[in-house]
Design brief:
Mean pLDDT: 82
Order of helices and strands: HHHEEEEEEEEEEHHEEE
CATH topology of the largest domain: Immunoglobulin-like
CATH architecture of the largest domain: Sandwich
Pfam families: COX2 (PF00116)
GO molecular function: copper ion binding; cytochrome-c oxidase activity; oxidoreductase activity
GO cellular component, one term: plasma membrane
Subcellular location: Cell membrane
Largest sheet: 6 strands, mixed
Strand order of the largest sheet: 8-5-1-2-3-11
CATH class of the largest domain: Mainly Beta
Number of helices: 5
Main location: membrane
Strand content: 15-25%
Distance between the termini: 97 Å
Low-confidence stretches: 1-6, 276-296
């Protein structure tokens, strides 16, 4: 008794799909931080990722469908050879489709991507941001609040519903500052100050970390970001001013040592430890411009 066997191309096509399906399914157990936004910046970036993935999925599925159609249509069967067009050379319609559809897809992605990217470089209008000076060290983070004159190490508090302008620099090898649930990452570079604004839409504790390998202690460069109500944030600032010890020059030199440390809080900090002369920026998101020496 003979058994009918399917075409070999079907096994070649379905085999890899069946083998890779468990890999895709295994990643569905928990939600990644970048896919669980807790602020307007992260939410906008997630929408841009969804837009890009959707456009790419349309292209991939279309290619799969066309490949399957070609395999079925031009497949030789016993007694039914596939069609042959040996003298075929050119099709204007096919050229338009092959070039036009990718152009439309790229345009579909590029226009909102460009608009949103430039929009995220600008602070929301009519909102005064909380400013935090961020210094990447080996292997720790120093945060200064110039408005309140306080400082913390390896943790920050921010008010919910208010934009926070981070001014990023480094007193160590170049690094990157990243709070995945609040927005994308930005570089921390010695001799430079780069801006990054983020905002938390709801109270919570969000993990921040370095996004760039910078040495043996890189894995320990994590910090806690606690978003609280604006009233609780102002009360915390006043409490730190009253109860925390001041940061001395010796304390700062200790932070420059290449090691790890826990969380620290200071009611003040020595003047001049954040770069005085560097490349600055304007708050409306324009290109970097020379910043005068504030000490002169």
């Amino acid at each position: 008794m003979s058994t009918r066997k399917g075409p070999k191309w079907a096994y070649r096509l379905l085999g890899p799909l069946l083998l890779t399906t468990p890999l895709f399914v295994s990643g569905c157990g928990s939600k990644m931080a970048v896919l669980d936004p807790a602020g307007p910046v992260a939410r906008t970036e997630l929408h841009l990722m969804e837009l890009s993935v959707t456009a790419m999925a349309i292209v991939v599925v279309t290619v799969w469908i066309l490949a399957a159609i070609a395999l079925i249509r031009f497949h030789d069967r016993p007694g039914h050879p596939g069609p042959r067009t040996p003298k075929w050379q050119h099709s204007r319609l096919l050229e338009v489709v092959l070039w036009g559809i990718p152009l439309l897809v790229v345009t579909f992605i590029a226009i909102p991507m460009t608009q949103k990217t430039y929009a995220l470089d600008r602070l929301p209008p009519a909102k005064d941001p909380v400013i935090i000076d961020v210094t990447s060290l080996d292997y720790k983070w120093l945060f200064q609040y110039p408005g309140a004159g306080i400082a913390t190490v390896n943790y920050i508090k921010i008010p919910v519903g208010e934009p926070v302008l981070f001014k990023l620099t480094a007193d160590s090898p170049m690094n990157t500052f990243w709070i995945p649930r609040l927005g994308g990452m930005e570089f921390c570079m010695p001799g430079e100050v780069l801006p990054l604004w983020l905002e938390a839409s709801k109270p919570g504790v969000y993990l921040g970390r370095s996004g760039q390998f910078s040495g043996v202690g890189f894995v320990h460069m994590v910090f806690k970001t606690e978003a609280v109500s604006p009233q609780a944030f102002r009360q915390w600032e006043q409490q730190v001013k009253r109860t925390a010890p001041p940061m001395t020059e010796a304390d700062y030199r200790g932070l420059l040592v290449e090691n790890t440390t826990g969380e620290h809080t200071y009611s003040s900090y020595p003047p001049g430890i954040f770069p005085k002369k560097t490349h600055g920026f304007t708050l409306n998101g324009t290109m970097p411009m020379p910043m005068p020496d504030s000490g002169s």
